[in-house]
Amino acid sequence: MTVKAPVIMGYSLEKRIIPRFSVVKVLKLKGLMDENKNLGSVLCLTKKQFLERFVTGYRTEVPQLSRVYQGKAAIQDV
């Protein structure tokens, strides 16, 4: 993943990587996202693109997703 997108090495673990991977994990657990999704592409999206595509886009199926992204809800609580 980092070979194709070395810019990922500069991303904040707390501010970008963990929140996004938490959302992706919830979507995968709920069967709403393909298991083979390229996670590098998820990290390279702008914040606005990510929120529109993965948080706002699934708000009817998983209303707590924005809380997971903000770190206010645990994955297992969703």
Please report which band the strand proportion falls in: under 5%, 5-15%, 15-25%, 25-35%, 35-45% or over 45%: under 5%
How many distinct helices? 4
Structural class of the helices, strands and pairings? Answer: mainly alpha
Shape: globular
Radius of gyration: 12 Å
Helix/strand order, N-terminal first = HHHH
Count of domains: 1
Averaged pLDDT, please? 89
Q: Can you tell me the residue ranges where pLDDT is under 50 for at least 5 consecutive residues?
A: none
Number of strands: 0
Report the major sheet. Answer: none
The span between the termini is: 28 Å
Share in helix:
40-55%
Overview of this structure, please?
- This protein has 78 residues and is mostly helical.
- It has one domain (6-77).
- Helix content is 47%, strand content 0%.
- The protein has four helices and no strands.
- The longest helix is centred in the first third of the chain and has 17 residues, at 13-29.
- 13% of the residues are buried.
- The model has no long low-confidence stretch (mean pLDDT 89).
- Pfam families: mTERF.
- Keywords: Transcription, Transcription regulation, Transcription termination, Transit peptide.
- InterPro entries: MTERF (IPR003690), MTERF_sf (IPR038538).
